[in-house]
Amino acid sequence: RDLVKITNDDAAAVAATALSIQSDGGRGIFIDSNLAAGLPSLEIDSEHTTANTVVIRSDLLQTGSALDVSDNSGHTGIRNVASIRQDHASATAATALHILSDGGRGLFIDSNLAAGLPSLEIDSEHTSANTVIIKSDILSTGSALQVSSTGTHSSNLVSFISDGAATGPTLHLRSDASVGTVKVLQVANSSADIFSVTQAGDATIGNDFTIAGDFVVT
Fold first, then answer.
1. How far are the Cα atoms of 42, 161, 172, 202 from residue 175, in angstroms, in the given order?
2. pLDDT (tens digit, 9 = 90+) per residue, 95-150?
3. Predicted structure pTM score
4. Is residue 126 classed as helix, strand or coil in its secondary structure?
5. Separation between Cα atoms, residue 79 and residue 72, nearest integer Å
6. Which of 16, 92, 111, 133 has a CB 3.0–4.6 Å from the CB of 119, allowing a cystine?
7. Are β-strands 203-205 and 193-198 bridged in parallel, bridged antiparallel, or unpaired?
């Protein structure tokens, strides 16, 4: 049953608002749901086709959050604090999560797990599509991808691992630079290059070159 029901049954009343709440102080709406197991505290069943289902506008936000979702449960069970799903396989043009930022960060992950699951994990079932794409068409002095660490780590800072029966390269580097002296691969320390390869194919070794096995030149 419905304890409270508000309806606007006239489809032509496009400028009508079924429920309007204005609060100049304190909370606007507070829902205290004590159901340990049951229906959601808030559920929206939308039949919209071109209009937005939920809109949050916060034009004067300063230090707070336009949307704050937190979970302080100590339960060790597997759960999602926030879940976004696009379940229709034929919706090939849909985007499950779109972030647009005209200033500041686009996405920030602050993970404080000393030992645990990754801060970011991508489990891809792609076969012919790319798993990750980074496009930086107007890059000038920054980096499209930067990985850094100030810790005294004994493991690999970056690892590329191909465990399957692959026939392609594990790491592929390509440069279409018009100047042949542009470096495609550069391995350096704080003062000089250790090893580098230019766009023209010239390789430079900054120190000793040791070969443990055969050296075959054709």
1. 52, 23, 10, 13
2. 999 999 999 999 999 988 877 789 999 999 989 989 999 999 999 999 999 999 99
3. 0.82
4. coil
5. 12
6. 111
7. antiparallel
